[in-house]
Amino acid sequence: MAKQCARCGKKLSFFAKGPLCEGCQEAERAEQAEYEARQTAVRTEVGRKIRSGELPSVNLHIEDAAPVLLRAGEVVHFWDKARLYEVRSVYAGYEGGSHGVSIRILKGVSYRIGSQKGHAVYKSNWLETSQGFLIVSNQRLFLYPRPGHKAVSIPLKKILSYQRSANEIEIYKEDREKGYVFSVSNDYCGETFAACLALLLARRES
Fold first, then answer.
1. pLDDT tens-digit series, residues 87-119
2. CA 132 to chain centre
3. Is the pTM of this model over 0.85?
4. For the chain, what is the total number of helices (H) and then of strands (E)?
5. Among 17, 40, 164, 175, which one is least packed by beta carbons within 10 Å?
6. Going along the chain, which residue ranges are E strands?
7. Please, are residues 118 and 159 in contact by the beta-carbon 8 Å criterion?
């Protein structure tokens, strides 16, 4: 039985890849590009307000994702795509082992000295551990994950320090020695997140 396009019902070629015909694939790409352009325009305007000292309320909608469940009284101020990086121990090899030296005592009898057992070596590296959408609200900074990835939620009152470098924001929180690094789309979004956190944390201290 011939396959049909899941969108328009047109008969698909025998060599078609995926459930859509070429025309519908192109239409979807155009719609996605338009959606992303609108989202970029919204984030740019929201970012401008944040940089001027405001904390605007954002009606958050993430395409092709379940609604973000907010807490009572929670207001979203900014969001962007993000990847999460954390420090992890990575196996780096084996070192220190030695067979020692074999000393002949009698014919057919020898004694080995200086042999040592080696040990595994691990190094700490920043590794990607999740991805999704980084959202900052009046209550927390949280990563709304893509399917198959983990969520991270950091209450504002638990943030000990943060720093921003280009499009990366490094966060340290109470009761956790190692930090989180969130990598967002670009420098503009990184600077906007940092500005938003500065305003929110200053308000909590006042």
1. 887 666 666 555 555 555 555 555 555 555 656
2. 6
3. no
4. 2, 9
5. 175
6. 76-95, 101-106, 109-113, 119-137, 140-145, 152-155, 159-165, 168-173, 180-184
7. no
